[in-house]
Amino acid sequence: MKILLVEDEPIAAARLKNLVETVRSDASVDAIEGTAEGAAKRIMEHNFDLIFMDIQLADGLCFDIFEAVDPPCPVIFCTAFDDYAIQAFKANGIEYLLKPVRDQDITRAFERYDGLKKQLSGQTVKPSRDVVNSIDSSGPAKQRFLIRAGNRLFSINVDEVAWFETRGRDIALHTFDGRDFYIDDTLNELERKLETSAFFRINRQRLVAFDAIEDIRIDEGRYQLKLAADPSPVLVSRDRVTDFRQWLDR
Questions:
Q1: DSSP-derived secondary structure letter, 85
Q2: What are the pLDDT digits (tens) for 34-55?
Q3: pTM, whole model, 2 decimals?
Q4: Cis amide leading into 127 (omega within 30)
Q5: Each residue's pLDDT tens digit, 62-102
Q6: Which of 55, 85, 141, 229 could in theory staple to 79 by disulfide, Cβ–Cβ 3.0 to 4.6 A?
Q7: 213: left (phi over 0), alpha (psi -120 to 50) or beta
Q8: What domains sit in the chain, N to C, each tagged with a CATH number?
Q9: C-alpha distance from residue 199 to each of 29, 161, 183, 187, 205 (Å)
Q10: DSSP string of 14-78?
């Protein structure tokens, strides 16, 4: 397995190289780059199976690399900052490791990599909850919701919806412009009716739109989301974190 390591601190690069090659016997760190420019050139000229990448490099952020080249393979981000999770998963990221990186972190990252390879090769893997929901759903994904407000009827398009939330026995639909409406569907029904790449059930109370997620913070393994039109952070349930990461990586 050929690996590119993108890290601008020599001591950190040497430590990570040792961890990677110790944890995975068939892994070989073939190149180390400390700048976005150098990494982009290396990616254009060589083929790699996996990239370990720091985010803040000597000449800027690593995301500059992806403006020069398309992500050629999965990327495992290793950083001291938890501010870039959304950008990382949109840039072919499959893991987001916070420094100091430990051997168990590297092990988990390789397990994630192996799982994705099995899925892509068509081998049998346990389907995620979202895959099961998409199989169970019938017909095209829901496109709009009929709303009754007093003696008025009107429709709300799905792309106007930031999230759905359980409030007692009711389900509230919350739009990006801050409006609330109550609908008859349950969250379980909505999971089956909506496009699964666009919405995710982060906990028992909320089903959120991908476009509503403005920021993700990771604190001791808990994922905390900042959503559009909502001043209060919300948590992803611990039992939903793995599926949530897979959903972000679609």
A1: H
A2: 999 999 999 999 999 999 999 9
A3: 0.55
A4: no
A5: 988 887 887 779 999 999 887 787 778 777 888 889 888 99
A6: 55
A7: beta
A8: 2-121 (3.40.50.2300), 129-248 (2.40.50.1020)
A9: 37, 10, 17, 11, 14
A10: HHHHHHHHHH-TT-EEEEEE-SHHHHHHHHHHS--SEEEE-SEETTEEGGGHHHHS---S-EEEE
